[in-house]
Structures are given as structure tokens and as C-alpha cells.
Amino acid sequence: MTAELRSQLPIRRWSSLSAQERYTALRRPAQRNTQALHEQVREIIQEVRSRGDHALVDYARRFDGVELTTLEVTPAEFAAAQTSLDAVQRQALERAIANVRRFHEAQRAEPIRLEISPGVTCEREFRPIDAVGLYVPAGVAPLPSTAIMLAVPALIAGCPTRIICTPPRKDGSADPAVLTVARLCGIERVFKLGGAQAIAAMAYGTASVPKVDKVYGPGNAWVTAAKLLVANDPDGAALDLPAGPSEVLVIADEQAHPEFVAADLLAQTEHSADAQSVLVTTSMALAQATLEQLAAQMPRLERERTLREAIQNTRLFLVDSLQDAFDLSNTYAPEHLIIQIAAARAWVPQVRNAGSVFLGAWTPETMGDYCSGTNHVLPTYGFARAYSGLGLGDFLKRITIQELTADGLRDLGPTALTIAHMEGLGAHANAVQVRLAYLATVLPDGVRAAARPDTPLRGSEGA
Amino acid sequence: MTAELRSQLPIRRWSSLSAQERYTALRRPAQRNTQALHEQVREIIQEVRSRGDHALVDYARRFDGVELTTLEVTPAEFAAAQTSLDAVQRQALERAIANVRRFHEAQRAEPIRLEISPGVTCEREFRPIDAVGLYVPAGVAPLPSTAIMLAVPALIAGCPTRIICTPPRKDGSADPAVLTVARLCGIERVFKLGGAQAIAAMAYGTASVPKVDKVYGPGNAWVTAAKLLVANDPDGAALDLPAGPSEVLVIADEQAHPEFVAADLLAQTEHSADAQSVLVTTSMALAQATLEQLAAQMPRLERERTLREAIQNTRLFLVDSLQDAFDLSNTYAPEHLIIQIAAARAWVPQVRNAGSVFLGAWTPETMGDYCSGTNHVLPTYGFARAYSGLGLGDFLKRITIQELTADGLRDLGPTALTIAHMEGLGAHANAVQVRLAYLATVLPDGVRAAARPDTPLRGSEGA
Which residues are noted in the entry as substrate-binding (chains A, B) (predicted)? Predict the structure, then answer.
């Protein structure tokens, strides 16, 4: 077993790889994102737009193998869900919600109000996005934890319309844990819809499903393609983050526990056949011990089959220094970065590109996935170079506001005039000019010098 | 003239329109976003990726009509630019930069550090995006104001690599005002590149142009299509905002100055043939007087030809109440919202969807476009329902960090175990379980009960 793994997973010395070899070694597993897939998804979206709920019922039959009589979860189903969880399960969800809530409430930002110069005020205020659609996938099993990560910030943001779509189970019901989370997070409307058709329903609305302004949540290749397509359409809906297969990078030194490192790599690996786990270590002994632990732990895990498939994406790198390790990590830009080195905390400033960071021996990624308080919807597939994980701000819009007094315009107006003329935009200049000309005809106390009783001088300051 | 405009621009009573008529009346001008355009842009991107700088020189010849010997602006060009602006122009740019800088510096957010429960710490820190590419268009004339809006937040964020692409002028030089802004904002590298080819060069890099992680800035249909395409490619670059033609909505009551309202509508209208201006007023007299002002002001404006074309997109609505006006505005979700009513300030909380808001008689949109301090890169084409205007945060990533102590894991670990099992993710549970099992073998003071000298107990807290 170890021998087999050892041949599958060579420990590569980073310093001996050429630039091209490094590039290749850090390539993510190929993503299913073909033109053909996009065409299929485009057709699904078109069907949902033209046939609405009828198309949704048809797709549920075809893709989920269920005959849905209602798309929306009924009060009876909600009630049944409440009783189907045991006390330990319910308490675990409640504690996770409480922690995620605390961390996301801490992300509230104050409005800004700044007098830029006398009579020129600029402000920034927040508004919740009116309608948000939360997609809770159910690949292996339904994911109540994803419902938590989406529903909690939407609740804190105060988005007036918050709905969940989640694929129906084989018996046509929705997962009771997801329904329990929905209720605990104040979400009244849950639809038993999965895949691209769920995204289309939320982006455009149907008789049953309200149209939303933005869709959130991870999903498979169909869901991802649908999110991109509806986001590119002004009549569709925005998306939270581009998504790809999930990944972890573990930086470990000779003091790390190989048992823990291997367990963390495997936790990521079990997600799907295209998930990727990367170990970067300064210690050959740790790398070898981790390989042994991988071999030892894999057979006792329930998703062994997925593990055996996805382990082929695992990469093991030996680096000369921790600086090399962090450089490699920043190049790879992992969704999850686990740092199991003696001085983990001291190296945090070196992390430039990563979704979420897990420090030390006692912080497995699992904790962030479920209940530490951070969000588990994170930029995958290298998107951490430019994107951030989901947070409260993703459920809000920032609106800027400016207000000038007559004196403020007198003072700053000429600056705008100059730049407008530099840009050849005469009507932009004119909008300032007509006001300055008007102000030139009035005395400073607001009394007009030239009589023009039909247009009294009046600013929003009530002059 | 007024008669002609009056027939072109009917004043429509909102309350008398059916739902379908309202929907049609608020439709934006059609966007050039065809499959054919996408195919052209896809080809340009492919050419730039495969032929690099050679393709860029070819496209400059073909699209810009210039023969470029160097793509990058030289120190001599920078020096010449400094001297070609007069003192008034330079001071105007400096003042605009100072104002934009102040408002964007006020957007800095503090890191978060929160002890969620004993031994469980969650944090959020900010990191600048490593490399940003700023696109400064030059449709009518080059836009130094756009250079300000992009370069200032990139500077404050501290993005290590900041480059500008801007289309070359007919003589092959770059606009001196844009170069002056670049220098004032600490940008060393400017490339004379426009259109889709500029976006491709920044997203993938060429021998001359460094690859960036995210591209910013408005542009024409080719630029917009290129940004979407590279953003959908994990090897490409993220984009700031989806873009469409620019627009303004003015809410005015009977006390507004028709002269100012008309000037504001025209300032927006001059942008391009597909720009749109919307007036929503509670006063028929104001609507009619605005029409007269439109007719009076148009002939004296330099971009009259564009105005005559784009004025066809202008919409005039008469509403029964200010509440109706704000409802209409929130449905339209304007990029710019100008509020010229007696109690403008009091109505701000009613604004749910808008990019930037201008309050009162003395705050023409022009001021925000150039120098009030707010950013003028804003969500257009209805995207204000889900997106915000550009700000400091768009140049930063938010990274979350968590750290558990051994006791923290002992306490919270079982919660994660429960949820992992609910989701059928055994390897996730295992990563917690191996640690809890390990901790069960050690005494509370960190001394191991069971001898296993090869793996000392060690968390990042240095236990």
C-alpha cells in the first residue's frame, strides 16, 4: 500500500525543478468547462426561461430521478425536518451558526462621512442586496454547513428576499438538516431544485421561484457554468465567486505530526475526484512519514474509493527553506492553507495569496469548514490571487453619496471644469458652468442680484 | 427645436403605464454584445497569447492606425508629458487626486481578531492584489480622470505591480495628462495599448507587458467582452465590474432648476450614442421646462452630434409622488442618481439601488466624475442591483485565519465531528479525530501519557 502510494506520489525537490516543470507540477486538475458543457447549460437556462416551473419539474425527473409535485418545501416538511434531527445534531448546527454569526457580525463596516473640503461632503453607505439566492449542493450528501455559510451573512446583511435551492433527495424531500439551518437562519422559502436549472430559476424567476439579484454557493461544473452565464447577462444575476474544484496546501516542517498532516490532506482529497491536496515541507522525513500515514489512514475511511481516485492529484514537494515554501504557496494560491510549523504565527505576514489559513497543529481545515466562524465558501483553483472568500460585504452594496454646498461648488467647480475640457466633454463642463453662472448672479447671502423669480435659488441645504 | 425634441421625448405618466409598458420604458439601450463580437475578441485574445508583442504591434497598426516602435512609454515621453500641461491643468489633476485619495484612504478597514470561544480565534487580514492592470480608455479623448480613479486606490492598497494600458494617439504617443496622473500616482509603467488586445496582454502577459491578476477600468464593447472572457479563464485575470453604457437618473421636484436638470441630463448623454439619461419628476411644469432647456443648451455644446443621437435614449417620467419616483429609480438601478428635490437628504435612506448619489442643486454629476473624491467607476446597465462602485476594497483580498489551541479543539472539535458525519465526509471527521485521540493520550499539562517520542506534542502555540 505504501509502496503503491510512493510510486503514485513522488516527493519532488522543488529546487531541482525547472521553471516549466514547476509550472506543470502546480497545474490544477483539469476542470470540466468545455464548450459542449456550456451549450448544454445554455439550453437548460433557455428552457427554464421559456417554460418556467414545467421545465423545472421535467429536469427534476430527468436529472434527480424524482417526480416533484411542489417545488417549494411545505410547512409540513419544515416541521418534519425539525423532529428528524437528534439533539446532538441540532446543537452542533446551532453552535456552528452562532460562531459563524459572531465572526460575520464583526465584519460590519461603519458608513463613511467625510468633508473633503469646505462644502464638499463624500459619504459611503451600505445597502443589502434586495434578493439573494443561496445554492446548497448535495453531491455526496446535502451540505447543511454550506447553508450556514450562505444564510448567516445574508441574514446579518438584512437582504429582504433570501431563498435556498437544494437538490431533492431520491424520495422527493429536502434534507432535514438543510431545512433546520434555513429555519434557524430565518429563511422561509426553500426550493427542491439542483444543478443549472436551479441557478436559472433563481436568476430569471419562475411562477414559483422569485427572481434574485445575486446567486451564491458552490456547485458542480453545471452549476458553475450556469452561474457564469447568468452573471454575464444584465437580465440575469450576479455571482459570488468563480468556482473550481476544492484544494488544500499544507506547509509543514520537521516538527509537524505526519498523522495530522496526512489526515488534513485526505480530508481535502475526499471531496471529489478532481480535488487536490499539496504538501510542501522542509523535511524529507516528514514527507515520508506522511506518505506512510496516507497509506495507513486511507483504508479506514468511508470514502476510500473517491480518495483512491483523487489521491492522484496530490503533490508532495520538498523545499530548501520555509521562504521557498511560502513562495510556492503564494504562486499556487491555495483555497485552504494549513501551516503546521513551529512558528506558524510569525509566518502569517508572508501569506499573500490564500483563501483561508489554518495555524498550528490543532487547527484542521475541518474546523473552518464547519464551525470555527470563518466562511468556507472560498476562492478555489488559483482565484485566491484576486478574490476573497465570502463575507458579509458580499451581501451588501456600497453606495457613495456626495453633496456640495453653493460655496463648495464655487470652490471646487473650476477644478472639474478644467478636467472636463481636457477630456473634451463640454456637456460635463456645462453642468458645472450653468450653476457657477447662476451663482455669480446671486449675492453671497442667497439673494439674487438679477431678478428671475421663476427659479428660486435653492440647494439641498435649503439655502 | 423644442417642438422636435418634444415629439422625440414624450413625458410619460408612470401611473398610467401597464407593467409591461413600464418594463419596456425602463429597458436600457441595446448593448453591443453579440456572439460575433465575442468570436472576434476571442480571436484577438488567442493572437496575443500566441504571438505576444508582435500581435500587439499588428493590432495597433490595424485598429489605432499607428506604427509603434515601443509598446511601453519611455522616460523621455514621461518627461515631455510633464511639461506639456499648463499649471492650471496640473493643479486640477493634483487636487482631484488629493480628494480621491482622501476618500479612498477613509475606506481602509481594520483587521479583525476575535476569540470566538476559549481557544478558538478567527481573524481577517487584508493583502493587496499582487499585480493590477488599469485600463484607461480614450474614446472621445483620453481620460485622465479614469486614470485617477484606478491608480489612486491601487496606490493606497499597495499593489506591488501597477500598470496602465491606454490607447496610443494618432502620432503614436500617449496622452500627457494620463502620463502625468500615472506619475503623480506612482505608476512607472504605461503601455500604449487599447481595446481587447490591451486586456489580453495584461491578463496573460507578453514579453513587454507583465501579467496581472486583475484588470480594471471601463471600455467599449470589445474591452468589456475581453474582460469577461479573461475573467472566465482561471489562467486569465479577474475583472473589476461588468460594464455597459453609462447612465444617469435625475429625480426632481417642482423646486428644481430646469436649467441644471437639463445640463445634468446632457452631461450624461454626451458620453456615447448608447448613453441614457432619465428624468423622473413630480412636476409637469419642471418636465416641460427641462425639455425647453435641453433644446436651448444642446446647440451650444461641442458634442452636439453625439447628443442628438443619444438624446433618443432619454426618458422623461411624470410620477404622482416622490415615493413613486424612488421606487422607479430603485427598479432602474441607475449608475448615477441625482436628487434635486427640496428634502434630498431625507430621502437618501430610500435609495436601495444606485452606484453613486448626488444631492441637491449644487452637486452635478460632473463633480463626482472628476474630483469630489468618490470613484467614477460604477455599476452601469442595472448592475447596481448587485454590484458597488470601485473602492479600495477592490484592490485588496481579505484572508481569513483561524487558530485553535489544544483546549479549543477539545471543546469545539466534537461539533465539527457531528456535522462532518451528517454530511458523510468521514475524512473530514478523521482530521479532527486523530487530533482528539492524540490529545486523549496526553495529560493536560502537555506531557504524553503514552510514550511516542518521535512525534512530540506541539501546537503553533508552542505547547
Answer: 246, 268, 271, 336, 369, 423, 428
Q: At what angle do helices B426-440 and B406-422 cross, to 10 degrees?
A: 150
Interface of A with B in 156-185 (CB under 8 A): 177
The fold adopted by the segment(s) B405-463 is: 1.20.5
* pLDDT surpasses 50 at A143: yes
Of A99, A144, A381, the CB nearest to B116: A99
CA distance B26 to chain A (A): 12
Residues B361 and B367: their CA atoms lie apart, in Å, by 12
User: What integer best gives the mean pLDDT of chain A?
Assistant: 93
pLDDT of A1 over the 90 cut: no
Judging contacts by C-beta atoms under 8 Å, the chain B residues touching residue A138 are none
Give the C-alpha separation, B315 to B312, whole Å: 8
**Per the structure block, which three cell numbers stand in for B60?**
495597433
pLDDT surpasses 70 at A237: yes
Q: Does B401 contact A352 at a Cβ distance shorter than 8 Å?
A: no
Tens-place pLDDT, residues A402-413: 999 999 999 999
Distance between CA atoms of B68 and B19, rounded to whole angstroms? 54
Query: Is A35-107+129-241 in the same CATH topology as A2-30+244-388?
Result: yes
Residues B270, B248: Cα–Cα separation, whole Å: 12
What's the one-letter identity of residue A75?
P
- Please tell me which of the candidates B354, B369, B435 has its beta carbon nearest to residue A428: B369
Distances (CA, A) of B417 to A221, A298, A366, B332, B444: 28, 18, 9, 47, 22
pLDDT the model gives residue A463: 36
Name the residue ranges covered by the structural domains of chain B. Answer: 2-30+244-388, 35-110+129-241, 405-463
Largest Cα–Cα distance in chain A? 97
- B67 classed as catalytic: no
Interface test mutation site (partner B, options A149, A376, A460, A461, max chain B beta carbons within 10 A): A460
pLDDT band at A284 (very low <50, low <70, confident <90, very high): very high
Task: Confirm or deny that A271 is annotated as ligand binding.
Answer: yes
Distance CA A179, CA A147 (A): 9
Which residues of A are designated catalytic? 335-336
Q: Looking at beta carbons, which residues of chain A come within 8 Å of B375?
A: 400
Concatenated DSSP letters for B418-443?
HHHHHTT-HHHHHHHHHHHHHHHTB-
The CATH code for residues B2-30+244-388 is 3.40.50.1980
Say how far apart CA A107 and CA B215 lie, in whole Å. Answer: 26
Mean pLDDT value across residues A221-231: 94
Q: How far apart are CA A351 and CA A336, in angstroms?
A: 11
Burial of A118 (0-12, 13-18, 19+ CB in 10 A): exposed
Euclidean distance between CA atoms A33 and A219, whole angstroms? 13
Fold classified for B35-110+129-241:
Rossmann fold (3.40.50)
ipTM exceeding cut-off 0.90 for this assembly: yes
Residue at grid coordinates 482529497: A269
CA distance A114 to A99: 34
Domain A35-107+129-241: what homologous superfamily? Nitrogenase molybdenum iron protein domain (3.40.50.1980)
Of B384, B378, B403, the residue nearest A373 (C-alpha): B403
Q: Which of helix, strand or coil describes residue A114?
A: strand
Q: Give the mean pLDDT of chain B.
A: 93
Q: Which of B88, B270, B408 sits opposite A418 (nearest CB)?
A: B88
pLDDT, averaged per 10 consecutive residues of chain B (463 residues), comes to 87 97 92 82 98 98 94 96 95 98 97 98 98 92 93 98 96 95 97 97 98 95 94 94 92 98 97 94 98 96 92 97 98 98 96 98 98 97 97 98 98 98 96 97 59 44 39
Distance CA A191, CA A200 (A): 13
Name the pLDDT band for A243 (thresholds 50, 70, 90): confident
